[in-house]
Amino acid sequence: MEGLAEYYSAELAQKIKRGLNESALKCQSLGSGRPLGYTVDEQKHFQIDPESSQAVKTIFEMYIKGESNAAICDYLNARGLRTSQGNLFNKNSINRIIKNRKYIGEYRYNDIVVEGGMPAIISKETFCLAQAEMERRRTHRAPVSPKAEYLLAGKLFCGHCKGPMQGVSGTGKSGNKWYYYYCANTRGKERTCDKKQVSRDRLEKAVVDFTVRYILQEDVLEELSKKVYAAQERQNNTASEIAFYEKKLAENKKAIANILRAIESGAMTQALPARLQELENEQTVIQGELSYLKGARLAFTEDQILFALLQHLDPRPGESEQDYHRRIITDFVSEVYLYDDRMLIYFNISSADGKLKHADLSAIESGVFDAGLTSSTNLIPGRTPGAGFDAGLISSTTSEQALYRLLRLIL
What we know:
three-stranded antiparallel beta sheet; flat
């Protein structure tokens, strides 16, 4: 029955396609959206609608004269004219009309093109002038200023209210552009925070400088590479998981075979097809998990990991300062909590998901943790962050999952 259904479905699709092509060769309307300015007669042929076709002519005339899309829309909407769907005109609808070759009598459906297959509303000369004007507008647009980049977007949070900090720009009296980070809760009708805004360039440079000074040191990276390698080996040990899913797959195949035998023997019930479909879906999931587990193994040596880490010590040849800062922040920095007099940096190697837990943050702020939080990691012995803007904190725990995550980021 499934085979017959598939056959009849394919045959029906072919018949529909053949019927549409035959109608298109006759230049008939196929019901897939009637262009503005036309009606369809009883034989399904396009005919010019005297009222709406005048709107099409007006659009082309105003467009060629240099009127903006917005001005054309305002003119048409103010006079009660509407699109073929009965909606208000907008900038996109003007562009669609200007590019529509049906208005010069060219009938189109897929690969079928019939010159003069429908009555023309405008001349080919008018159409060509409109295309030339469209090209002129496309190539003479005002230069767009490069979009400002905020490297800490999504990673920076206010130390006072714990809300996200966002990037904003402003222009000074001298015309210079300034870029800042500000707390989202300091603006709007309900201001719940008084955090001061901070210079984007100064803050991003401070985060990178701290990371380079206390994390990107050869002795620290050597120790880190050993921990990452050990985490990789433990992560690659997927034998037990593979055995579990192979057992589940064998059980699944056995259940499917039992149902097929029951169907073949004539013991057909309404529940059997549904159960069979459920088992087949389950089999697809299990096979996907097995494919992932068998192909997810990483095999980097400790030296290769150290080499990749050492590439962060200095910019690459030809790499700009901005690109270098982006690489450092992307690979190592997970979250930054900014206060008025200090900041807390949380690195990707700090926890399984790289996120600072609320309890840990509260403990840090209450002074329960040591100011540097560096003694228990042994990653940066002898280095204690300085006070003020350069202050930072390193988590006291380093999880295997987070180290493995760092490995994927840098390699």
